[in-house]
Design goal:
The protein has 162 residues and is mainly α. The chain has seven helices and no strands. The protein has helices spanning 2-19, 21-25, 31-63, 65-85, 89-92, 95-125, 131-160. The longest helix is centred in the N-terminal third of the chain and has 33 residues, at 31-63. The model has no long low-confidence stretch (mean pLDDT 80).
Amino acid sequence: MGSTIEWYDFFLYGTMAAIIFPQLFFPQHDSYVATLLTFSTYAIGYIARPIGGGLFGHLGDKIGRKVALVATLIIMGITTVLIGVMPGFETLGLLAPIIITILRFIQGIAIGGEWPGSVLISMEWGTEKNQRIYGHITSNRSATWFNTRNCSNVALYRHIWR
């Protein structure tokens, strides 16, 4: 469940990056440059994922995978709320894009630590007979949900544009 929530937060940011954030955080640029800058903050989350995997993998080995997993969920939730309530460029000026980039980096670290940790916990809890399927289900459920959502959007667009 945690992976799905974290990936939802990640994909939600991608949607907002395309629709709202260019005007909110980069209004001083034209729309093309503002969109590119917004998607560069989106990319920061992906760049931070290996760091999170290493950091929380180490913490999971030292203090326990469950504790590390809960920590990643809390971090992701807090950063998502902060992004949601953060004022834009008009209020904070240049500090707004800097803060959003830092929050995206922290989100990337959280999801980079949560996803492999959840797969590992699922596989460790399974019996030898079914641990591979548990790891597979945990690994692919968020991607499956996202692709299903995209397929339903394509069907919706085809229906609307007939």
